[in-house]
Amino acid sequence: MDVRLWEYLQRILTARVYDVAVETPLERAEKLSARLGTPVWLKREDTQPVFSFKLRGAYNKMVRLPADQLARGVVCASAGNHAQGVALSARRLGCRAVVVMPVTTPRLKSDAVRGFGAEVVLHGDSYSDAYQHAAELGAANGLTFVHPFDDPDVIAGQGTVGMEILRQHQDPIHAIFVAVGGGGLLAGVAAYVKAVRPEIKVIGVQMTDSDAMARSVRSGERVRLNDVGLFSDGTAVKQVGEETFRLARELADGFIEVDTDAVCAAIKDVFEDTRTVLEPAGAMGVAAVKQYAAEHGPHIGSLVAVTCGANMNFDRLRFVAERAEAGEGREALFAVTIPEERGSFRRLCEVIGRRNVTEFNYRISDERVAHVFVGLAVTDRGEAAATGRAFTESGFAALDLLDDDLAKDHIRHMVGGPSPLASGERLYRFQFPERPGALVKFLTSMHPDWNISLFHYRNQGADYGRILVGVQVPDATAFRAFADTLGYPWVDETENPVYRLFLR
């Protein structure tokens, strides 16, 4: 065995983490295993006291500091998980901790750090700004800097995750998937696994827009990214550490890159198996497991994903829910062009049939054609392609929008502005039971002489769906009578000032 690998094995075996950390469970993801056709296991680091593995490395570093250094205190830079690990470790060891966080850090995270008794300093717009300021504070006040990843004691602390996996699962394991930011967790897990059971693959997982480690390994030297994506803020690192790079280059069996939609789908997968909501970094390993299984087929053996964190901001959940279906290939999005003539909406609805509608947006803007944004629930991308062909065969031009970020992030939420063609328009808001076919039933039950000039519907995942519809009707009384026959709650919004400001 390589001398340096032997040294890391000793460091990991003697790491002091359990004063504050817990041995997290290794749980089988039953639903995901059944779907992928191979056993999938989740190493639940999201169940640590700070909801992240970072506590292990921070404490192992701090507990080994000389008494005089510990008495002076420590300083670190972090946007969240490492900060909480340092703060809790400092409380346990009775020392001062100064945590520098970017001013953009969500209050949820900064409050959590303060809750452990640490001093929070908000500085700069990025981790790099916070890192520089933390180094300056440390030098000026005699504080010891606790690096989030590029330190042998930190790496060894994270390596205890790998030690627990092999102790908890002594049967064969095909591969372990580890999210990578700066590389501390990957380096620690790989060091232990390759020293004890080298036949197990250790695969690093990176976001497509934050892939500093994968690029560095490919090029043979550390690469610094100009920009990193912020969706997975826990792995948004522009440059990996020197020691973590060395270990990853020597020990990792490869890297898989995953995108935002795939991670959102993985968050949903873990929720369905555990009823736990992971943060994006925590779900990256699961996204990679799914990609790996799709490429290698079923029955490849046990796959382990480290679910490394659950510090999710609540306000991100709406975005995650919307993108999860796209990431799983379970939602098809189309821009469908139909003639601007009576009966076109009905024919479009006939093509949609009993498919569950997730989105339906339209605003009259042209005398000849209408452009309708349509979202449909599908089983996979194959069904999405078949649906697109069905539109085309029915004479409707259909543009597939599933891989169009502009459509998914913005256009789907917009219904256009005022239209000179919407004369005599009245606006109504409906609420109806959410079930397959309900929206199509609503559309097909309308009188053929009533022209729809605006339509907005989004499936919110609730028991009730909500529709906003603009109708050009010669007799409002007749429309009200029709609405009453539906048996759904409805409101006439024609005099609403917001409607008059933005749409009329």
TrEMBL record:
Pfam family, one: PALP
SUPFAM superfamilies: ACT-like, Tryptophan synthase beta subunit-like PLP-dependent enzymes
InterPro entries for this protein: ACT-like_dom_sf, Ser/Thr_Dehydratase, Ser/Thr_deHydtase_PyrdxlP-BS, TD_ACT-like, TD_ACT-like_sf, Thr_deHydtase_biosynth, TrpB-like_PALP, TrpB-like_PALP_sf
Catalytic activity: L-threonine = 2-oxobutanoate + NH4(+)
Domain (ACT-like) ranges: 332-403, 426-495
Cofactor(s) listed in the protein's UniProt record: pyridoxal 5'-phosphate
Keyword match Amino-acid biosynthesis: yes
Record-level GO BP terms: isoleucine biosynthetic process; L-serine catabolic process; L-threonine catabolic process
Record's keyword terms, sorted: Amino-acid biosynthesis, Branched-chain amino acid biosynthesis, Isoleucine biosynthesis, Lyase, Pyridoxal phosphate, Repeat
Pathway(s) of this molecule: Amino-acid biosynthesis; L-isoleucine biosynthesis; 2-oxobutanoate from L-threonine: step 1/1
Organism domain of life: Bacteria
Listed GO MF terms: L-serine ammonia-lyase activity; pyridoxal phosphate binding; threonine deaminase activity
The protein's Enzyme Commission number: 4.3.1.19
NCBIfam families xrefs: ilvA_2Cterm, PRK09224.1, PRK12483.1
Record-stated family: Belongs to the serine/threonine dehydratase family.
Described function: Catalyzes the anaerobic formation of alpha-ketobutyrate and ammonia from threonine in a two-step reaction. The first step involved a dehydration of threonine and a production of enamine intermediates (aminocrotonate), which tautomerizes to its imine form (iminobutyrate). Both intermediates are unstable and short-lived. The second step is the nonenzymatic hydrolysis of the enamine/imine intermediates to form 2-ketobutyrate and free ammonia. In the low water environment of the cell, the second step is accelerated by RidA.
Quaternary structure (record): Homotetramer.
Identification of the protein by name: L-threonine dehydratase
UniProt source species: Gemmata obscuriglobus
